[in-house]
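dumping this here before i forget
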Amino acid sequence: MTFIDQTIVSIAAPDIVRELGLSASGMQWVINAYLLALAAFFAVGGRLADLYGPRRIVVIGTLVFVVSSVMCGCVPKGDAAQGWLIGFRAVQGAGAALLFPAALAVVVAVFPAERRGRALALFFGLSGALTAVGPLLGGWLTAAWTWRAVFWVNVPVAVVALVLTAMAHIADRKRTGTLDIVGAALMAVGMGLSVLGFQQAYSWGWDSPATWLCVAGGLAILAVFVRYERGVRHPLIDLRVFRDRGFTIDAVVLFCAMLAFVPLFFFASVYAQVSLSASPNQAALFLLYVFAGFAIASQWGGRILDHRGARPALKAGAVLGCVGFALWAGKLTDLSMHDQWPYAALAGAGIGFILAPASTDAVNRAIGPSYGEVTGVTQTVRNYAASVGMAVFGTVLTHVTRSNVTSTLESRGLSAEQARDTAHHLSSSITGSGDASPPSGTGAAADRTRDVVSAVRMDFAEANQWVFYGMAVALGIAFLFALWHPGGTAADAAGLSSAEAQDQHVPTTAD
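structure:
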């Protein structure tokens, strides 16, 4: 549930916007509220699982998640719709932040050391794959029933999860300590404020003091959080793990990769429905190319990690991803779904080479048995990066779309004022679905806008090129950092000899 919901809503975005009348920024906040809450409260969820027992927190997290899912699906039409949906998506993300680390703690607790590596590898492999499955499931539910079903589908899954949790008779193993409330508040405010600045940059303007006050203020609060955590007896996040250069590089490369990975599903699905006039199902199949490359490369990346360490996999993934996104960006303006599949698969393969090896290598570098603490760090990094990516690329997309559409309308005879007003309206509701929802109304502006729908689709495709080139740059930066990775195999990372590694079986992605 927690990983599918990172991407399942993306495919339904045009239908949600059309029915509820959300703005482009509002729809991006629907995606981002979940990611941001998940990032901000993930470490809190892990700490609560330690203090009160993982079984109890799994149950509480599941209940919070499923109730908020139902409320998201029941959003009423009208002025309250946007606030309602964003608010309950944030609550849903908080539920996921309780659920996921507690579930991971269960895996670590119930498996002995010699079987834990295989269990964790399966756990991470399934969760990563389900992120890519989200759009496929979302497309089918939206086309077969209603976009509200992308939220309601969590109900039967949650019922099964609660039944299985009861049947498993999981022991609640509690640890002593306290919850770092101050640290949790600092991290939540810092992340939220910085993402708010990036997200609202289009509305406020990049030259607005409010934009930079939010961005700089949020980053400053995160710096205060880091300083504060160093002096706390029971910190929310044990920052000592960053003393390991390999772990730090893993985290940075994951951050760069996640700037592109989760946002990709939103921007590619909306591009398919706006510029290619695809149905939700067709858009989901379009994203299947990404998943195919991701799935295959994940297996190869795991084998590379086992035999040669994380560095070769991270370098290969960053290069493939950078090249794939750059070539894909160049093909967006062809407006042909068929011609783009090799580049979509190549971009997915680049991400696949990175995610599993970097995540597993980070776990292998855990301080003693602290798998949960290390995973808390990596998952926080991943989800915060996805939030920042959604905010930054969303702002770029809306700004460039507005500029392109304004130029197009002026070239077709509209006055500068009419062109700006119409372009603002279109760019604010750009997550509409192309020909399925043509411009309405009367007057010169509406008539001429209908005449240039095909040109507007091209304008949107050109705006998406900026986004995809930005994703290529993110993977290029990941490559530069991957060069600094110390390397080593899973056994080396865990500080074990070959024989000891076989006995203890440290986590490997090949498992």
